[in-house]
Structure formats: C-alpha cells, structure tokens
Design goal:
Blueprint: H1 2-5, E1 11-14, H2 18-31, E2 38-41, E3 44-45, E4 51-57, E5 77-84, H3 86-89, E6 98-101, H4 107-112, H5 115-120, E7 125-130, H6 136-148, E8 154-156, E9 162-164, H7 167-172, E10 178-182
Parallel strand pairs: 1-2, 3-5, 6-7
Antiparallel strand pairs: 4-5, 7-10, 8-9
Length: 183
C-alpha cells in the first residue's frame, strides 16, 4: 500500500497484536524502505472509540487473532487493546482512496465505525476480506448493510477479476475465501 500511494501519500496500518505492531511490522516496513508515510496504529478497528476491548491472540497463527468471540474457542491468550473507528482515525484526512479490511470475523464492527468516512469519501474503494465464522445471521446483516449503503456486492476472484456476487452465493459457499470489492 505504501508503494501504491507514493511519497505524498499516507498509510495507516492498524494492527492490535502487540508483537506484530511492535516488531514484525516496523521491521517489514524498514526492510522494504516504506517506513516514511506509514503510521502504525496499535489498535483494533471497530465501532467504538477510546474503549479497551478483549482481543484474542493465537501464538501459533497470527492470522487468526480476532476481536470476535468465535475465536475464543481456540484461544491462546486474551489481551486488552484500545479500539478506534475509521471515522475517528481518518477524521482530519483530506483524501482517502482505499480501505482494506481484514478483521477475522469483525468486519461488521469495522463497517459500522466507518459510516461518516464513507459519506465524506463517496468514491473510496473498500476491499473487505469476508470471514464467515460469524455465522449466517451476522453475515446476512452485514451484506444487507453494505447493499443499503449503495454498494453492489462484487467479489475479487482468484484471477483478480471483479465480478458480481449475491448474498445467497456467499452464504452457500462459507468454506470459500471471499474478498469483496465495494465502491
């Protein structure tokens, strides 16, 4: 993302896992020459500002750490982390082109916390990794919220094409990894 936005751009990399935010992410940025223009935000993104929340860590698989309760069945450790909304995080930004959401089941919370941001930047592209661990009711609710906000459901397929998709198809294939393109 830092390479795509160029030297004038700005990236906010939100990572609530302290090991990733404090060690791996800074090392990766430095190794790739992208330390300037990237703000590491050691918070979970959600629907509430300035509140400490439980975050489930998995030592053996960083990619499955989550804010969501489904992760607690596989819990290695739960820590308290601060939550921020994208509305607050981007409040003074003059421009926003892309938001990438990879929240391991907490996508609806992120979506709820970015309503003002979407209104301010109506042409922003949102790439959302959709994790269906939340259950059908929550997923249907999120998909309906997305559509009510004026975003047709589209997916980025494995060939990199943006294709139309509907909620029924997504729900019928919960084992698939869905990456939505919302604009």
């Amino acid at each position: 993302m830092a390479a795509a936005c160029g030297p004038e751009g700005h990236v906010a990399a939100c990572e609530p896992n302290p090991l990733l935010a404090g060690t791996y992410l800074p090392q990766n940025l430095a190794l790739n020459g992208f330390y300037h223009g990237v703000e590491i935000c050691p918070k979970v993104v959600g629907n509430i500002d300035d509140r400490m929340v439980d975050f489930v860590l998995h030592d053996d698989n960083f990619a499955t750490s989550s804010l969501e309760r489904w992760a607690q069945a596989h819990c290695e450790e739960t820590i308290q982390v601060p939550m921020v909304t994208l509305d607050k995080l981007c409040a003074d930004w003059p421009r926003l082109d892309l938001v990438k959401i990879d929240a391991e089941g907490a996508e609806a919370l992120v979506w709820d916390g970015m309503r003002q941001t979407l209104n301010r930047f109506p042409h922003v592209a949102v790439v959302m990794e959709l994790h269906l661990q939340r259950g059908p009711a929550q997923t249907v609710g999120l998909l309906h919220k997305i559509e009510r906000a004026g975003n047709p459901l589209r997916s980025i397929n494995y060939e990199g094409e943006i294709v139309p998709v509907d909620a029924a198809t997504i729900l019928a294939q919960p084992q698939d990894h869905w990456t939505l393109w919302l604009r």
